[in-house]
Structure formats: C-alpha cells, structure tokens
Design brief:
nine-stranded parallel β-sheet, TIM Barrel, 20 strands, alpha/beta, 28% helix, Lyase, Ornithine Decarboxylase, Chain A, domain 1, 25% strand
Length: 371
C-alpha cells in the first residue's frame, strides 16, 4: 500500500548521506575490521534492497538481517555475499534459511543440531555462535562456555562450518562505559575457552555506538545500524549525516475565529484569530501520535507547531507565522527546509522513544523517494 509519489506524503532517502555515514564508520575503525551493515526491518524502514545498492560498492563484508525471510528476500534481490541472521532461527525457518544459503546465529545446541541436519541436505552451511554477556535475549551463557563449546565443536565439520562468534552490547549508547567494558571482558573470557582456532572465526561485537566510541574493540568486524540511517549513536560520538526526510502537503488552509477547536478531544482552542493548515499525514503513516500539541513542522523554512491530536491520516499546524502558505505547499516533519531542521532524534525525544522506532515505524503507505 503506497500513495503516488509526492502527491500526499512521502519519505526522502539520501543515499549519498547513507554512504557518507558508512565512510565515517570506516574512518573511525580503520582499515582492519570488516563492516557488516545491519539491514533488518527492511533497511530500518528505508528499503533493504535500496540500502544494499547504495553500500555495495564500498566493500562491506556482507549484511545482517533479523529473520530468514529478510535474508531470503535479499538473495532474491541479487545479493550473493554473506548474509548473517543475527538472531535465533525459529525451527520452522531453518529450511528457508538453509535454502537461501544464509549464515545462522546459534544460541543453543538444539538449534545447532537442526542446522546440522539442514546442512546434510543443502550442502555446506555456516554458523556464528552468539555469546550472551548480559543482553539476556539470546546466545549461549558466557559463564557456561566450557559446557556448550565442546558440544558445538562436535556438531561442526565439513558440512557445517563454525565460522564466527559474537556478542551484543546492551548499553553502548549510555554515558557510563562500565557495563560495556564488563561485557567486553566477559566476551574475551569466553573466546579464550573456545575449542576452535581464533584464525578460523570472524569475531564481532560492536554496534554503531560501540564502533564509534571504542574502535579498538572492532575485532574482525563491526555491525553498524542506526548511525548509517542518520540516527545518533552514543553520547560523545560524531553526528551522522541526515538520511531521512518526511514530507507531506498542505491540503487545506483557513482562518479560524477565537474559540475554534481542532482534533479529537478538542485539545486545542484558538486564543484569537489563527491560521490553520491541514497536513496530509498522520499516525497511519507512522508519525507518532504523541506529537500532537507538542511537536512541530517546517513550512517555507519556518518552524510551526502541531496543534490538536494527530489523526490517522491528517494533522493540523498553526500557520500564523507563515501567512503566504497555501494548499499544495510542502510541510517537513523530519528533515531540513532552508535554515530550519527537525532531526529524527529530536522527533524521537519528543515522542519519548528512540530513532530506531521512528524510522522503522514509517509505514508502507509512504512511498520512499531517493534524493
């Protein structure tokens, strides 16, 4: 489901900025570690195939996804390099992942045995072991490495190759570095106990924030995500180039007398004569509903407030500061217009969430347009 491009509301994707953010990661970590761009959730909502096209010439190791279906879709789009499913595979997804030649992340011996059985049918397959150092949602327990590592080694062989090990930081974007430092030490302790040669494994731990803050932890590879897509990563790292702009059109402009109310619940009433503009975008497009009466937009380079509650398909802005605004004009909800800018992180802060959720929440009703 999508609307005609630029007739109602749309998302602009700056692939040049996406590539520049990748280059920032590369400059920070140096030439040694490989880069595994995370393109899960359809490339953080921007289109995974589009992201791959933009980044492929920059030499990534491969790509990371969250599900077998996402990996298979990348294969169907033409990706031939490594694709890592960076999370446990449900039993019913094992066959699809094997057929697509994906690299499985293994968190328990039962999953490894299913993957080994698939390798007997589909030819050589690879897996990376996830080691849980405190995230808690997946991975073998770092404290029990001596128990599971030998079992994992016994299942691997010519048909099933153990080619990687990784962990995931739960607080790399927090001000306090101690939790991440603790996880890093735990990871090193677990790696030292693995019954396979270090040279045979791709070791990776760093997401965007960790790669930018502690490039010395880059190991063999890093897994950047939100920074590539224009979201800030960590309290003291470089700012990314904005990749996403969300724009919509004014569909109605009118002057209203004092006391006029707007939106469900009539939460805004005009204090005097006001000029209101109806904008063709709402929470059905993924714009957070909580921005009603708190968020803002840009019209003709001027920031204007969102008034009233946001509806599924529309919202209203107060246009008294932009008297020349008319139906058909472009309204910017995220992005730059002239000297004025609203970042995805600003919107996330106003909505009480994170940039990841804002980006991935933009629905398929908004066409994606490359700029």
């Amino acid at each position: 489901m999508s609307n005609d491009c630029e007739t109602r509301a749309w998302v602009e994707v700056d692939t040049g900025a996406l590539r520049e953010n990748y280059r920032t990661i590369r400059r920070t970590i140096g030439d040694g570690p490989a880069i595994i761009p995370m393109v899960k959730a359809d490339g953080y909502g921007l289109g995974a195939a589009r992201v791959v096209r933009a980044l492929d010439s920059l030499g990534p190791w491969g790509y990371g996804v969250a599900t077998a279906e996402e990996g298979a879709a990348l294969r169907e789009s033409g990706v031939r390099g490594p694709i890592l499913v960076a999370g446990p595979l449900p039993p019913h997804a094992t066959e699809r992942a094997a057929t697509a030649g994906l690299i499985a992340s293994i968190s328990d011996i039962d999953s490894l045995r299913r993957w080994a059985a698939a390798a007997e049918v589909h030819g050589p397959l690879e897996f990376h072991v996830e080691i849980d150092t405190g995230m808690g949602r997946a991975g073998f327990d770092w404290r029990e490495t001596g128990q599971w590592a030998d079992a994992a080694r016994a299942e691997s062989g010519d048909r099933l190759r153990w080619t990687g090990a990784f962990t995931h930081f739960h607080g790399a974007d927090a001000a306090d570095p101690l939790p991440s430092q603790t996880q890093w030490r735990r990871f090193q302790d677990a790696l030292a106990q693995l019954p396979v040669s270090r040279e045979d494994l791709l070791i990776h731990a760093c997401n965007s924030a960790a790669a930018l803050r502690w490039p010395e932890w880059g190991a063999d590879a890093v897994r950047p995500g939100v920074f590539l897509y224009g979201g800030a990563a960590g309290p003291d790292g470089p700012l990314p180039k904005p990749v996403v702009a969300v724009r919509a059109r004014l569909v109605l402009v009118r002057d209203v007398p004092p006391g006029s109310t707007v939106g469900y619940g009539a939460t805004h009433a005009a204090r005097g004569w006001e000029r209101w503009g109806t904008v063709a975008i709402g929470y059905g497009d993924g714009l957070p509903r909580i921005l009603g009466n708190t968020g803002s937009a840009i019209v003709e380079g001027t920031r204007v407030p969102i008034i009233g509650r946001i509806s599924m398909d529309m919202l209203v802005v107060e246009l008294s500061a932009v008297p020349a605004a008319a139906a058909g004009d472009v309204v910017t909800l995220i992005g730059r217009d002239g000297e004025c800018e609203i970042t995805v992180d600003e919107v996330a802060a106003q909505a009480g969430t994170i940039s990841y959720e804002v980006l991935t929440g933009l629905t398929a009703r908004l066409p994606r347009v490359e700029r």
